[in-house]
Amino acid sequence: MKTSVSVAVKGRVSVYVGAVRRRVREGGLGPAPVLLALAVTWVVFQSLNDKFLSPRNLSVLSVDIVGTGMVAVGIVFVLLIGEIDLSVGSLAGLAGAVFAALNVNLGMTEWLAVLIAVICGTAIGALHGFLFAKFGVPAFVVTLAGLLAWSGLMIYLLGPDSSIHFSEDGLVATLTSRYYSAPGFTYGLAAVCTAAYLFFSLRERGRRAGAGMPCRPVGEIWVRTVLLAVVAFTTVAVLGNFEGLPLALLIFLGFIVASDLLLRRTPYGRQVLALGGGVEAARRAGVDVTRVRVSVFMVAGTLASVGGLFVASRFTSASQVSGSGMLLINAVAAAVIGGTSLFGGRGSTWSALLGVLIIQSIASGMALLGVQTALQFMITGGVLITAVIFDSLARRTAASRVRA
Predict the structure, then answer these.
(1) DSSP assignment, residue 323?
(2) I want to staple 376 with a disulfide (CB 3.0 to 4.6 A). Which of 28, 92, 366, 391 is the partner?
(3) Residues 180/190, Cβ–Cβ less than 8 Å
(4) Taking the domain 33-181+243-396, which CATH number applies?
């Protein structure tokens, strides 16, 4: 009996080891390298300054990542089809300027000003996508022109003072200032999310197994669930020692989960990934290339506007800082560092979360150590080029295996 059990265990272990080796050869390790890099970053900064992993610093970090992270989620959609959007930084700044101008200068109610600001981002994204998809103008050129044009419009709306301050108690300011500290709510939310993941994972496995399709082993699902529970409850416990769970973080995670489901569980998401794998092949498979191209730029424009409102909320003002070039650079870097391929067809919206965590952790650690911003830029640049090199090697390895 013991022999049969040990043989079964060894067999499962060999299966998992073989799967890992296969993924290494194919360049598909998923988020593992990024998680390792994040862990190393946290260990290094904690060893240099014991305040880095304090509840206060982690709470500030969890809010600081949201604005850039929202923009990065939109960038992921564009990168998945093998394109780039250089206008998202200026669109984020424009959204804050539109909101502030309508609310403060014209007296419009906040919720309506927010809605118009977001719709403006969607419409501008649609315009970029239309010019790219219909007229064949390279996305790089279209969005570069947009970067200049919308930055100019933002400066015009901000007026001679270059900034517009809005209420610190209003709707937009609340986005980054509200926290939930009641243990019943925070721990209950962690438990519900963990249980929901387990339920839907087991249901998906059952459906795939019933259809004779490859599916995750039950053991792997339980391991993932336990890891999720550890992360969720640890996050709630640590942040609860300061002010509680930030509303901004909850909204950000909600956007990531929703966009991830959109990409992985819907026909539209499969069309986006198919288009990233090859335009001609996607067209022959029945994908409406023009519609998908326009839609991903609309998503990028919408999320850039939402991210811009979170950035403005952090300062309770709209200014040129909200639409600075650093926001664009950090958003693109976050998506790529998190694991989204620059060549299209591979990545997920969780890449935005992982990438922006690394970038903001570097910034936070450098600030605690009193290191100059110049060194922060150099380190972030080094991390970015390393991620791109790994992406290129993975793509080359996968291509060589296909040819073989």
Answers:
(1) G
(2) 366
(3) no
(4) 1.10.3470
